[in-house]
Amino acid sequence: MEATIALKLPRDAASVPLIRQMFDGTLRSLGVVPQIRDDIELMLSEACTNVVRHAAPSDEYMVTAGVHDDLCVIRVVDTGGGFDPHQVREPKESAESGRGLLIMRALADDVRFTNRRENGAVVSLEKRLRFEAGAAGLSL
Question: How many CB atoms lie within 10 A of CB 20?
């Protein structure tokens, strides 16, 4: 079974809930268990929010989110200035933001950050899926 959503989105905060809700609806219709859907929703939100906040001077970004058998694969691609994930500092305990990379690493089964220097960054996230009994995703 394969299902893929690919969207080019404006680098605007309103784009984050849009892609999150679209992909969650797809996962829900395939019968992915709620805990896994919640993890994917949070990973996707963090990756997109980082683009919105940090990918200047980019005006837009691309999200590809797909299901391939029992694997969810998400790619968030921006055309901003790029970043080095090894240079990102750990947030202080009292910080109200700055935990996006930590959250993605904690929830994803595989995370890759590709810095394209002056051509932006690519965040690749993978998560194994579990399905409800009798789910549509099991029969496709």
Answer: 20
Residue 43 near residue 74, CB atoms below 8 Å = yes
Q: Is the peptide bond before 10 cis (omega within 30 degrees of 0)?
A: no
**Cβ atoms of 48 and 15 closer than 8 Å:** yes
Cross-strand bridge partners of residue 10: 60
| Amino acid residing at 37 | R
Q: Facing residues of 72 across strands?
A: 67, 127
Q: CB under 8 Å to 10, separation ≥6 — which residues?
A: 59, 60
Whole-prediction pTM: 0.87
* Cβ atoms of 42 and 51 closer than 8 Å: no
Over the stretch 19-45, which tens digit does the pLDDT of each residue have? 999 999 999 999 999 999 999 999 999
Q: Are 122 and 113 in contact (CB under 8 A)?
A: yes
Q: What distances in angstroms separate CA 123 from CA 63, 128, 137, one per listed residue?
A: 10, 17, 25
DSSP 3-state percent helix, strand, coil across the chain (nearest 5): 40, 30, 30
